[in-house]
Design brief:
Blueprint (H helix, E strand, L loop, with lengths): L1 E3 L7 E2 L7 E3 L1 E3 L2 E9 L2 E8 L6 E4 H6 L6 E7 L2 E15 L2 E11 L13 E3 L1 H4 L4 E4 L4 E4 L10 E3 L1 E3 L2 E7 L4 E7 L5 E4 L10 E6 L4 E14 L2 E11 L9 E4 L5 E5 L4 E4 L14
Parallel strand pairs: 1-8, 6-11, 7-10, 17-22, 18-21
Antiparallel strand pairs: 2-19, 3-13, 4-5, 5-6, 5-9, 7-11, 8-9, 9-10, 12-13, 12-23, 14-24, 15-16, 16-17, 18-22, 19-20, 20-21, 23-24
Length: 282
């Protein structure tokens, strides 16, 4: 069995209310929630990672909760592939949203420790894709949306690559499929360095279990749907024939991103008011 876990740490330079609302604690550019319960125990502090196929829990937490290893699986990260332990939690909850029978990858989450040693797990697509929600960086909240209408804004269809939402943008030479990734700090392209403009330096690409050095460059302009972002840092990671996506697009580049998982679209920088969503839980 293979699962994917996204980039979950910063690129460290080497050279040169509406629905049910859960507060976000921003750790650098990464969204963290503190109201996760596993099998009724908690609360735990988890990273919200839209670029991770499966959720994960730190090994000491799994031991405390007596989560027994169920199987081994090959976890593909952005810095390599690793064999890890998988288990099934009877129930995982965030705010008042719960799912039963949730797969959790069990490991040390070593890459996350460069962000915050108190983070105890990751909520990936096998949990968050079951709901429509607003990832609101500006107001530091995650809002589950039960309303009949999404907020206003241009809808961008996404496809799923290993259960992760990916959208198409026009690259310098071809259309690119980029995974929308709240666990990435910078735009990452999987390409030969020669395909892009000259590298300006190096960075360390940190993943959950390992790291590697990659080349860094800059994109003067990035057009995503109706949004234009200028002067974007770009990490250039080696190509992998087994990888279907062309790169990772950090959701933190936007003020907010609305995910409609039922209809399969996102709205980047949506226009909304508290009346456009439903009840808020503080």
């Amino acid at each position: 069995m293979k699962a994917r876990i996204s980039l979950i740490c910063v690129l460290m330079p080497i050279i040169a209310s509406a629905g049910d609302s859960v507060p976000l604690r921003m750790v650098r550019s990464y969204p963290v929630v503190e109201r996760v319960y596993v099998n009724g125990a908690g609360p735990f502090r988890f990273l919200i990672d839209t670029g991770a196929q499966s959720s994960a829990v730190r090994s000491d937490v799994a031991e405390k909760l007596r989560l027994r290893p169920a199987y081994r699986l090959d976890v593909a990260t952005n810095a390599g592939s690793h064999e890890m332990i998988g288990t099934i939690a009877d129930q995982v909850s965030l705010g008042d949203r719960s799912l039963e029978g949730v797969e959790l990858v069990v490991h040390e989450l070593a890459g996350i420790r460069c962000l915050d040693r108190s983070i105890q797990g990751v909520l990936g697509q096998n949990f968050i894709s079951r709901f429509n929600y607003l990832l609101d960086y500006k107001n530091r909240r995650l809002v589950f949306d039960d309303g009949p209408q999404p907020p206003a804004g241009a809808r961008v269809k996404f496809e799923r690559i290993d259960e992760r939402p990916a959208i198409r943008i026009e690259g310098p030479r071809k259309a690119l499929r980029l995974v929308l990734d709240s666990g990435a700090s910078d735009l990452i392209l999987f390409a030969d360095p020669g395909e892009l403009q000259a590298a300006t330096g190096q960075a360390r690409l940190m993943a959950t279990a390992s790291q590697q050095r990659i080349q860094m460059s800059w994109a003067p302009e990035l057009r995503v749907g109706s949004e234009v972002i200028r002067n974007v840092a770009v990490g250039i990671a080696p190509q992998d024939s087994a990888r279907a996506e062309d790169g990772l697009l950090p959701t933190s580049l936007f003020r907010a991103v609305y995910f409609d998982n039922r209809e399969g679209f996102v709205i980047l920088n949506p226009s909304y008011s508290d009346r456009s969503l439903t009840r808020a839980v503080q």
